Amino acid sequence: MRFSFFSLILAMIISVTMGCSTGNQGPSSTPLQKIEINVSAAVSLKDALTEIQTNYELQHPNIKLIYNFGASGALQKQIEQGAPADIFISAAPKQMNDLEAKNLVNKATRKNLVENKLVIIIPQASTLHITKFEDVTKDEFQKLSIGETTTVPAGQYAQEVFRKLGIWDKIRDKTVLAKDVRTVLTYVETGNVDAGIVYQTDANSSSKVRIAATAPEGSHQPIVYPVALLSETKHQKAGEDFLTYLSTSKSRVIFEKYGFTMSK
After folding, report:
1. What are the helix (H) ranges across 90-195?
2. What's the rounded Cα separation, in Å, for the pair 203 and 189?
3. Could you give the CA distance from residue 255 to residue 264 in angstroms, rounded to a whole number?
4. What is the pLDDT of residues 202-214, one digit of tens each?
């Protein structure tokens, strides 16, 4: 009897101990399996999208947004070569059109997200006098930075403006081509060039530069940022939910804070 009594007590102790040791292994401690949404986006959207990411992930703890920022043309080529991407946001329709022509875009999800303006910026302390785009033909302007005209929409818009004004051949030798619009901004901030052409939103993001002139109305195609899901996405529903969020009033406030205009 004594043996049975002590055996019973021992069994109870072992049972309680095992229960305590496994008590923290329940479902509540299992890490949340997050859905990763890869977004390839024009670098001029970086500030706004980063702020939107913080808000979105707080509201959707099961989602992790992974951004790949760069020149729209470069991002297009990456997508064509199979780079992981669920969503593409271009700084111009051309790159989206090219992907759509290759059936890499889900056409039903495509829409215009925001719009922007093209401006000339100079260092904050610059004494150069400029009030219009034509002023860059003056001898006092030695270096003008614009984005690569083959891959950077801002560079393509700039070239379009200069051709429209009939001065491209006059300023071609002054141009310093950059890999993306943020690099142009850096060149101007550091004084490595006399002026640069960027989007208004990029100019607004820096206290080291100031806007000297805005491209004349009708001198270039409208600066529109189309967005769409890619055909090969494995997260159709999650991707569509994020696209919807980008057009909400909460996102609008952030986009407009950085100088964008929502597309109608």
Report:
1. 93-101, 153-164, 168-171, 181-189
2. 10
3. 14
4. 999 999 999 999 9
Domain membership flag for residue 29: no
Which amino acid is residue 248, in one-letter code? T
Residue 165's CATH number: 3.40.190.10
Residue 75 lies in a domain: yes
- From 91, 86, 41, select the one nearest 67 (Cα to Cα): 41
Quote the CA–CA distance of 89 and 109 in Å, as a whole number.
12
pLDDT greater at residue 43 or residue 3: 43
Any idea what the Cα angle at residue 236 is, between residues 231 and 237, rounded to 5°?
160
Percent of the chain with pLDDT over 90: 87
For every residue of 29-50, DSSP letters joined together read GSPP-PEEEEEEEEGGGHHHHH
Coil vs helix vs strand at 237 = helix
Same domain, 197 and 245: no
| Torsional sign, CA 189, 193, 194, 200 | negative
Q: Which tokens is 7 given?
A: 């055996």
The sheet with strand 175-178 has its strands ordered as: 175-178, 144-147, 195-199, 118-123, 209-214
135 with 201, same domain: the answer is yes
Q: Are residues 95 and 151 in the same domain?
A: no
Domain range enclosing 154: 118-214
Provide the greatest CA pair distance for the chain: 110
Quick check: pTM over 0.85? no
Residue 52 lies in a domain: yes
Summarize pLDDT for 66-116 with one digit per residue, the tens.
999 999 999 999 999 999 999 999 999 999 999 999 999 999 999 999 999
Which amino acid makes up residue 59? Q
Q: Are residues 86 and 144 in the same domain?
A: no
